[in-house]
């Protein structure tokens, strides 16, 4: 089974940017939907953004216009470009993959997560 490893998290000031990467141990061509989730302390995990190799991506309302998800099948990598970061974006961010639909996928493969902290 493909394994997912996230990187790119860190500490950034409000208004700053970060780019998360999720590298798969094998080909992601067979992975239907890939996406990013986040979980803040004491909160439930929430979907941030998802996409297939084709078609339009899906974004949570809270990140629309600020985050961009992209997928490079040749590099077996999923990205999340995060701009105009806010303190409420602080969370552990997880990469995941599974069958669709992109709005409510059934993620079956998860990474270990990368921490994003936005200071005010």
Annotate the secondary structure layout.
Elements: E1 4-7, E2 10-13, E3 18-24, E4 33-39, E5 46-51, E6 58-59, E7 67-72, E8 77-82, E9 91-98, E10 109-110, E11 114-119
Parallel strand pairs: 2-11
Antiparallel strand pairs: 1-3, 3-8, 4-5, 4-9, 5-6, 7-8, 9-10, 9-11
Low-confidence stretches: none
Give the tally of β-strands: 11
Quickly give the structural class.
mainly beta
The percent range for helix content is: under 10%
Q: List the secondary-structure elements in sequence, H or E.
A: EEEEEEEEEEE
Describe the global form: globular
Strand content: over 45%
Largest sheet: 7 strands, mixed
* Helical stretch tally: 0
Detailed description of the structure:
- With 120 residues, this protein is mainly beta.
- The chain is 0% helix and 48% strand.
- The protein contains no helices and eleven strands.
- The chain has strands at 4-7, 10-13, 18-24, 33-39, 46-51, 58-59, 67-72, 77-82, 91-98, 109-110, 114-119.
- Strands 2, 4, 5, 6, 9, 10 and 11 form a seven-stranded mixed β-sheet that branches. Strands 1-3-8-7 form a four-stranded antiparallel β-sheet, with no helix packed on it.
- It is globular.
- The model has no long low-confidence stretch (mean pLDDT 96).
Jot down its keywords.
single chain; 120 residues; mainly beta; seven-stranded mixed β-sheet; four-stranded antiparallel β-sheet; 48% strand
């Amino acid at each position: 089974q493909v394994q997912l490893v996230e990187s790119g998290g860190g500490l950034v000031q409000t208004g700053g940017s970060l780019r998360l990467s999720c590298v798969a141990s094998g080909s992601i061509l067979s992975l239907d939907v890939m996406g990013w989730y986040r979980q803040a302390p004491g909160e439930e995990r929430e979907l941030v953004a998802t996409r297939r190799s084709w078609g339009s991506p899906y974004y949570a309302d809270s990140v629309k216009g600020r985050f961009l998800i992209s997928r490079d099948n040749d590099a077996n990598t999923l990205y999340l470009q995060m701009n105009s970061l806010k303190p409420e974006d602080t969370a552990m961010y997880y990469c995941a993959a599974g069958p669709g639909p992109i709005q409510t996928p059934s993620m079956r493969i998860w990474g270990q997560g990368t921490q994003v902290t936005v200071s005010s």
